[in-house]
Amino acid sequence: MFKTPSHIMLVDDEKDFVEMLSLRLKEIDETVIPAYSGAECLEILDKQDIDVIILDVKMPGMDGIETLKEIKKQHPLVEVIMLTGHGTIEGAVEGMKLGAFDFLFKPAEFDALTEKLNQARQRKHDQLERIRKAEAAMLLRRAKI
Amino acid sequence: MVDEATENLIRVLLVDDEKDFRTVVAKRLGLRGVSIAEAAGGEEALRQLDASPVDLIVLDVKMPGMDGIETLGRIKERFPNSEVILLTGHANARDGVEGIKAGAFDYLSKPVEIEHLYRKLVQAHNKIRRSLDEKREAAFRERIKQQMVVAERLAALGTMATGVAHEINNPLAIVQESAGWMQQILAKPEFGDMPRKADFDKALERIHRAVQRARRITQQLLQVVQTQITEMPDPATLTEVDLHALVQECISLVEQQARLKQIDIVLESPDPPPIAWTDPYPLLQVLINLVTNAIQATDAGGRITLALRASVEQVQIAVQDTGCGIPQSDLSKIFEPFFTTKGVGQGTGMGLYVSWGIVTKLGGLITVESQVNRGTTFTITLPVKN
Ligand SMILES: Nc1ncnc2c1ncn2[C@@H]1O[C@H](COP(=O)(O)OP(=O)(O)O)[C@@H](O)[C@H]1O
Ligand SMILES: [Mg+2]
């Protein structure tokens, strides 16, 4: 499959988990940026272009839902996949309402994760495409006037 | 106003040695809708009561052979729920008082005024019905109380178990990703001829399978919590469910397993089939759990009966087997998470715990009755849409 170069951020307070999942994703040639808290996630977003964020719901301090709200406020085009425990599906539902792309139960099957990742990436790509077209149309109209 | 009790048939055994008296009283009470059996003496009365019990007895005190007071004692001893009205001789109140001490409901002196006797019969009849109702109600309350005790314990256990499940999920995810990473690496072409590659693959596959197994357990535990968080089922998921069709679906899913063990599965359903207002998928999951347990508990040649019952307020699904039964000492534990009598890999002890959680969430009850070596019946009771 044709893969546009993209950047994934993985946010979880569980360092070993972040490291291992990053290694797996790198193994299939993804670029992964780790973050270990909601605050760190937002800091990185300010400095760097990110396409898809994999975000744990349950984190100490700023939790996944709060982080998601901030992400959507400051960077509405970034797609977010929530990682949730089975007992906290409310978190997932709330996340979807707040604009998350989808959610996965943790531990997630790797294949399911990569599939969601590709879909999220595709949606962001399509969204950007539409914006570009709209902007082009706008420019064209202005030029005619 | 029509008394509710008088609408029910009053059945009386009339005991008197005077045949003419019996005939007259029987005829006149019969006109008031009382059903009468007759006996000429104490022995005959006891024989008749053994053969076809009647709760109300009208008893003459003065009889040859076994007299009324003695007969009263025997009746009360053998049929403590019955009520006896004594007929005493004219101006012989002492017999009557003695009779009441011995447990008679009341006494009337001869000659008897029929209307008076009839009123007494109605009163005694009502008393019997009331005490029956009270007993039934007390038994019902006792059952509910036991259920509450079980429910509370299960809820407490659940809270702890799910805490553990949450904490285990994170390290489990790390194990899974670490093993998965190694599998990914080994799948690369440059590792094609690594020494003992097959051994590595095998070990990693085992890790993968073990993680899956642990994950199923944590999932089930957390699913029960899920059912406890929100008290009432989400109305959006409730639909009209044809229980006959649902049970049929369950049977089709387990049929093969049963056939392998030569166990018959039969479905008993009234016509028209009962309808429940409920969530079909979790309910199906419960049924599969119960029937799978029944198959595992039953030997070849056994039988599993799925019976549906419906009344105005509730519907019931009973899963009955002719299997090994559950010892009394285990009955209070089988719904606990992790309680199993099956070997490693055979049972996780989660089936009934999850089932209990689901049925509770659906606003229903799940109960069990069992006799060792005879069989077990699990009954799900669900409310009908109000
Ligand atoms: N129909 C049955 N007959 C006899 N024993 C049963 C039956 N159903 C359940 N049990 C007992 O209850 C235990 C718990 O059942 P369950 O929660 O489904 O877990 P599991 O089937 O994994 O052991 C079983 O191990 C068994 O001892
Ligand atoms: Mg079971």
Helix-strand blueprint:
The complex is a heterodimer of chains A (145) and B (386).
Chain A: E1 7-11, H1 15-27, E2 31-35, H2 38-47, E3 52-56, H3 64-74, E4 79-84, H4 89-97, E5 102-105, H5 110-144
Parallel strand pairs in A: 1-2, 1-3, 3-4, 4-5
Helix pairs in contact in A: 2-3
Chain B: H1 4-7, E1 10-15, H2 19-31, E2 34-39, H3 42-51, E3 56-60, H4 68-78, E4 83-88, H5 93-101, E5 106-109, H6 114-186, H7 197-229, E6 239-242, H8 243-260, E7 264-268, E8 275-278, H9 280-297, E9 303-310, E10 314-321, H10 328-331, H11 351-361, E11 365-371, E12 375-383
Parallel strand pairs in B: 1-2, 1-3, 3-4, 4-5, 7-9
Antiparallel strand pairs in B: 6-8, 9-10, 10-12, 11-12
Helix pairs in contact in B: 3-4, 6-7, 7-11, 8-9, 9-11
Adenosine-5'-diphosphate (ADP) is lined by residues 289, 293-294, 297, 321, 323-324, 326, 334, 339-342, 347-353, 376 of chain B.
Report the count of strand segments of chain B: 12
Sheet with the most strands of chain B? 5 strands, parallel
CATH superfamily of chain A: Response regulator
Query: Strand content of the residues of chain B, in percent?
Result: 15-25%
User: What fold name goes in the CATH topology slot of the largest domain in chain B?
Assistant: Heat Shock Protein 90
The neighbouring-strand order within the major sheet of chain B is 2-1-3-4-5
Instruction: Write down the secondary-structure element order of chain A.
Output: EHEHEHEHEH
CATH topology of chain A: Rossmann fold
> Could you name the ranges of chain A where pLDDT drops below 50 across 5 or more consecutive residues?
none
**Biggest interface, chains and residue tallies:** A-B, 19 and 24 residues
How helical, in percent, are the residues of chain A?
Answer: 40-55%
Distance between the termini of chain A: 43 Å
Query: Could you tell me how far the N terminus lies from the C terminus of chain B, measured between alpha carbons in angstroms?
Result: 30 Å
Query: What is the residue-mean pLDDT of chain B, rounded to a whole number?
Result: 88
CATH domain class name of chain A: Alpha Beta
Specify Rg of chain B, calculated over alpha carbons. Answer: 32 Å
Q: Please count the beta strands of chain A (DSSP E, at least 2 residues each).
A: 5
Question: What ligand species are in this complex?
Answer: adenosine-5'-diphosphate, magnesium ion
**Gyration radius of chain A, rounded:** 16 Å
Q: What general outline of chain B do the C-alpha atoms trace?
A: elongated
What is the helix content of chain B? 40-55%
